[in-house]
Amino acid sequence: MKTSNILLVLVFILGINDCHAKTITEFPPMSLYIGTDGDGFGAGSLPLGVQSPYGALRLGADTSNTLNIPIIFNHLGGYHYSDNHINIFSHTHMFGAGVQDYGEVGIMPTQITNTKQLEEMISKRNGYRSAFRHEREVVQPGYYQVYLDTHKINVELTATEQVGIHRYSYDNIKNKHHVILVDSSYTLQAGACNRSQINIDTTNYEITGLVFIEGSLSKRFGGLATYFVITFDHQWTDFGVWNDGKIIEKQNETDGCSSGAYIILPDEQEQITMYVGISFISIDQARTNLHMQTNMFQSFDSLRTIVQQKWLDELSRFEVSAEWDREAEIKFNSALVHSLSSPTQWDESNGVYLGFDGQIHTKPDYMQHVYTDLSIWDVFRTQIPFILFHDSQRANDIIHSIMINVEQGGDLPKWPLANGYTGCMIGSHADILISDLIMKKEHDQHLNLTQVTQALRKVANQNQVHDARFDPTAYIKYQYVPYDMDHDSAPLTLSYSYDDWAIGNVMNAAGLTDEAKEYYERSTWFEHVFDNKTKFFCPKNATGNFYCPENEIEFINPFDNRYVEGDAWHYRFFVPHKNPLEYDANKLNTFFQRGQPWTSTLLPNPYYWPGNEHNLFSVWQFNYANRSDLTQKYARWLLNHAYTVKPDGLPGNDDYGTMSAWYLFTSMGFYPLSGSSTYLIGSPAFDRIKITRKNTECVLLINVHNNSPTNIYVERVLLNGKILLTFPFLDHIDHLKCSNDNQSNIQLDFFMSPTPVLSYDK
Questions:
Q1: Rounded mean pLDDT of 246-251?
Q2: Which of 64, 470, 476, 540 is deepest in the core (most CB within 10 A)?
Q3: Which stretches are annotated as coiled coil (predicted)?
Q4: Other CB atoms within 10 A of residue 267 CB
């Protein structure tokens, strides 16, 4: 690793010239800037700030460039590494999604000479922003620090599940008053505020309020209210509100989507700690969250220690090492933090949460938490299978959360956000998540298979009110989605084929073997949109005519409206549950060879596109064609080229941990066929990997012998000292799950070679 890169990483991890650097907790090497940069389709869209593992409150800086020109696609998570101004610190964020929502309860400290200057600040959006420099940032799991150059204030942040804790240290400047602005109507997505209100309690020195937003997704289910309660460890001397660009001194309440409040601290008060509790239920619940999660307002340092210990407890279950590639360790640990950040814990203190029916519920005793913000089209492929792999209790809670959505909302969700259906993306891939849990025999006794099978039957055969498939009656009649009825004909048919295969798995596990056969038959309907002339999957109308691209340019047009977020090449191999290579095994190699020279992520790669979900499984499909060497070759190439330690080091939107989890699995040397108990073997990036599954004594130890940048091919694999006879496949139950006879360790040994191994002795 080059010295310049080491220094760059140290800057990323530690910051420079920071008076708090000496108190930094020891974490494994990482850079949480990864995924905060990139342009266009290459933007990672990750927020930068603080949260607890899986926490609902994601507190961080929303940033802008010098010209204050909003580039929306670069700011879906609020923060962009290329920016040099912090607009505000908001308390909720999407996590790497390709859409803007959340971004509420905006707070900014500043210094002013008089209220006229303050009025100038609040009279325009981002008028109170401040310049900042990365050299004055510290970024760690659960802790963020930055110096605001314009306002001369050091900001420190930490967060529990629903409480953001701020500590501001003001430079003492003559004739400057120390001020905190609470922009109650702020939303990251401009214009998303539907209504807001704020109240200043001058007796208890408390600020309360709410903002009701209608963001890109939340508006689809009628919007979302976020309530907040703010308190301080010191009293203020003056206060006021603003509305429509006008300051109203000593008024303690206001409302509207251009309003907020401010407090002025004593001039001698150079440091203050602020506690911000949020709730999606009520102001009273926000106050309860605030009291319970801060242990009645412990100090900033105490709470930071508690939060960071939660992170250390999670991270310490994973150990990787590669002396010849320290950057791989940084990428792994960073991806691990991002994976441990989502989905969103939805239940609040005392286990209460806002349901899909709009009512307040208490989580069942058998669940540790209720979860939401499940971008299922993305996370079913890698993120949730990765959680299941290392934390089966949490995976069970996620599936139980989906079934709670069904109970309260009536339908199986496609992309649940907060407490609502969004209808985002295609397919009914919750089918696959449920199948994944059941096929790996990790489901607990509380999963009601009768309820599950009823929900799966409904989504496959009836028009749901929410998140429905294409008309099931027509789909069953034609055995594909006709192009003249829906322009997503081919992608929908491919998706439903995979979904129905997963439903067949669940029906089979439930003992409904005849019904399972029906769904397995439906899982072959992808064949009906395969055009034997072009050897591609293409739209087909009700009379059987194909509408394939007509020339090579059309085949590689990623904006072709016949395909969802892709082109004909991107969907050529999207049959994970079957082997599409029987049609043309060489085409997959062409797919990767033509994709390799494409280095820009600004626009989609017209061939293999590492930054979007429908291609994530493609590299593993060589295993089905007895060309495991090509899986190993291209998987290792992608680890080194599509993923880097730079801020633009993700190939696209992280999508709630999807890209990060792809890296985690691939770097460990195996990858899940979601919906099954099967993993496919690749080329591990480390010499040693150790993973301790949560709430068990089960340890997976992977030793990789003779590994190096050139020794990328697998010569043989041993499982607990014996040749793995199922190579290049692993089974979750037979190979990676500790048995019930007190087995506490599983050991895999990979032996690597510089030359491809085209046949394996078994």
A1: 97
A2: 540
A3: none
A4: 15
